[in-house]
Amino acid sequence: MNLPAPSTISVPSIASSSMLVEFSVGYWAARKKDHKATQDVADRNSLASKELTNVTKKLVDCAELSAATKFGANARNRHYSLTQPWSDMGLRLVTTEQYFKYHEVMTEAQNEFYRLVEEFVNVYDYEVTQMQLKLGGMFNRDEYPTAEAVRNKFYMRINYLQLADISDWRLDIQTEAEDMIKQQYQSFYEAQIKNAMNDLWHKLHDNLTTLVKQLDYDADGKRKRVYDTVFDRALELCDMLKTCNITGDSQMESMRQKLESALYGLTSDAVKRDDSLRDDTRHKIQDVIKSLPSLNF
To answer: Which of 45, 65, 197, 252 shows the smallest number of beta carbons within 10 Å?
Structure first.
């Protein structure tokens, strides 16, 4: 992005106003390679090696398992939407202002995830008997863990970590080497902060571009469908421009004010029903998009 560089990034102040968060979610795969069926396919097709093919079967196929896994994937996406990137190791940045909303949303997600897992575990034994009928000769009861073992394969974890600042470096090495390492960390720190802010700009651009398209009309002059999730996300991003502006970027604050002015007091239902309001909102958001920093798209 071609953004103006922050005048000075104060590492200690950002460390005290932000934290790192690590999110992880896991499931039982409920799939297994069937070696016998794989060999049979290789033999029937005169394959030189069974490694040229792979027959994988579902151990369980039910709505309860699908609901839990899909919810976990959506929770990960929600985690991404409420945080900013930080490191290649999967750590994300969340400001102290944004923390309360993040923690509330993700705690609710954890509770719902484990509720869905319990629903699946409750029907697990029954679904195993159903799979015996569905799989026929491919069914092998030894491939199925106990219900308790299956439950333990599901997890959703959220860990918060302190964001270290330069003063936390206390090294028993020569001053010159310590200064070099601190300088490298400072460079890394500032690059990651810039990436975090760039990510927010990109989220805003993508959301507003989608919203403008939905507020338009099709070739026949009919209203296009405005999705509540897209409209609500625009309101959420407007708030994030304030709570996640960790560098105090005046450009980001100015953009927040423009977007707030465009969306103030509106609801998705209102813009869906009123063509005049729809047009006015679309034009205002188009102006906001034009004012965004160059994103090199």
So the answer is: 45
